[in-house]
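Long-time lurker. I teach an intro course on protein structure, and each term I like to show students one example going from raw sequence to a predicted 3D structure in token notation. This year I'd like something fresh instead of my usual example. Would anyone be willing to generate the tokens for the chain below so I can use it in lecture? Attribution to the forum is fine with me.
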Amino acid sequence: MDSTIEHTLTEVFGLQQFRPGQRPVIEAVVAGRSAAAIFPTGSGKSLCYQLPALHLPHLTLVISPLLALMQDQLAFLERHGIRAASIDSGQSREEATAVMEGVARGDIRILMISVERLKNERFRAFIRRVPISLMVVDEAHCISEWGHNFRPDYLKLPDHQREFGIPQALLLTATATPRVIDDMRERFDITESDVTATGFYRANLDLTVAPVTADARPRALVDWLRPRLQAGLPAPTIVYVTLQQTAERLAAYLNKAGIAATAYHAGLDGERREGIQQAFMAGQVNCIVATIAFGMGIDKADIRHVVHFDLPKSIENYSQEIGRAGRDGRPSECLMLAGRDTLGVLETFVYGDTPESHGIRRVIDELQAAGPRWELLLNGLSQHANIRPLPLKTLLVQLELRGIIQPRHAYFADYRFKLLCEPEALVERFQGERRAFVQAILEASRRARTWHELDFATLEALGRERDLDTGRARVITALDYFVDKGWLELQSRQLTEVYEVLRPDLDPAALSDELHRYFREKEQAEIARLHAMLALFESDRCLSRRLAEWFGDDRAPERCGHCSACRGHPARLPAAAPRPPLEDQDMKTLLGGLLERLEMAGDGHPATPDLLARFLCGITTPLFTRLKARQLPGFAALEGYPYAEVQGWLAGQSSVGGVRV
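-- Reply from a regular --
Happy to contribute to a lecture. Here you go:
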């Protein structure tokens, strides 16, 4: 086996030797075992599935959280002559169909999808018919609620592995603490000996934490960047900020100071973001000021500087972001211009994802009212309960883990099609039972001008009446076949998730309280993680060593010699500027518009201290979107204050503007 994989390494990938950790992972996968690779950013995790894919008999299915990650890896595979493709939301139906045909023929060895693609019933029906050798989970730490970037949909991946009969899984991540690694191993049944972690210490990264007050930070950044970016040599640089408006303002400030910089954030349209990323990769743009929307999937070896203008979201995020520097092994500098002024913003992100108790109760009431089969539209339930979609998904997963509900499938509630031939011509292409089946589809579809709306209930009744199999799976397979043949266009809308209710006799009040405690505990754990991050940055001990220890790696030197702590400059982060006391705020004026709209809406959402604090701190919720609350003068009026302080102050008031809180 060794000589075979080494031959592939040399002949296909043009490499003479494996990087640390790659060989044991690749050997485990080629030998038929599930494995996990925990390598720092830029250490060659992707080869751990790319090379085995050429030795496995069937498809390698890669699940990745972001399109940017897929596109870079697809470009790499194409350069090495490996047939790989993705199915993503940016493709036309024709492009997606061509990919699926290539997979079905066996021409495509590697298929990349997002985890959300597995909710698509048409894709699931397709993938069930395709033999798969290996499921790869990129950014696998997303499966653990004890890590950062938890994605509830990832929890379902072990079930999908069983559902599709995939014999092996490979988990890849750059940032997993020991607890997260144990969680990943347990869920995918990976033996401890098949987990390979190469360590987090990077000898070529110089780490500096420089305490700077918020008002002095832009000038300090200019003073640090100017000699480094005007030395005549290209020095690709990423400056990370927390908020979109900070990215725009800081890029403008740098340009005014004579340092060419470009802002990048999720508020820009996709084409603009793609253009900026390509220009940076090609060396046409040297300095990017970005939110964390930038960087995932950036495979640029010569990034010389990574600067954190604001605090990162977590130690894991910090490790991932500085890991983008110096992938070519050359010395690179990582600077944090640190202060506590953005801590409140980071805490607000955490608090905004905690559902209120009465919102959880609304979800449970819906569940109980549904009977044995609960069908829900996520966005509709999110609006009804005033819970953001991501924490709502987490809530549903918690109900699953408690054995209260069990997911059955997801389907698009609405299908409509436009015939590209005469109805009679479509029917005449078939004989016998198939002709009767196609005729029933047409009869069960309400026609507008050009589009037919498919009515599954009517079709089911026709099937019983005529003794036809008009099951949903068969109908969707047929419609897809008609699309492939060019006989019709098809559109699907309203993704509906179907659950079986296993325990309808639960105590709704007790369950609501239990789940609310779970979210509060998770919230406090996230806040504690933020403060653990501050403690790490303010440590007197070597920063490189402390960072490695966070991830369970004790192989880093006790003193690296290339961090600010080792140089005798441990950081003491300056506090945020003092703010006027909350008692001085005119809460009646700030909250009056919201209270008025809540009363007019009349849908029973109480004016709780949490709801009012979210409004004042600028946290968007489904209810605020519906009420157009962002237009009100009080929205985000106290954005700079710690959320817990605002909520606590409101909780101590008996009423605001005559409304009890």
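Some talking points for your students: The chain has four domains: 2-197, 205-340+535-550, 411-499, 582-660. The mean pLDDT is 90.
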